[in-house]
Amino acid sequence: MSNSILHVEAYDTEVCRIVQDVLMTMTQYPVAPGSAHYTGEPDITTCAVYFAGEWSGAVLVECPLAMAFEFTARFMRIPKPLQFDNDVYDALGELANMIGGNLKSVLPRGVSLSMPSVVEGSKYSVRVCGANRSNRMSFESPDGPFWVTLVETDSPQRSS
Length: 160
Prior knowledge:
Chemotaxis protein chec
């Protein structure tokens, strides 16, 4: 097992490619790397998957609620939801799962992926415990910006 620390910025190119490929393939939704600063708006929702093993961390997708509804309509090929419901949870969970699953293929061997989690509401915060590095990337879409954050945590192999 390697004890080397892999900096999350090393994965920027792969994260960009994966996010663009997943959204275009699954939803026909064109996105590109952007420059919008994270605003922490009250209607942001977060979906995440976590990695464990030789490399541990998480990938989080943060988007405005209106964009979550758009993703859901496109993923499921249904009318755009008017409220946060089970379809939105499922679509956002699947989005995080697909991005994380594709990213897993470029991470060190032996990395496993968790079930996705989705947080919605207002005035919440998500903290990945043990995080020592993170890199939040902005993406532009026809409906505005959203963010993907790759977080690296101390894995058991490195902390001992």
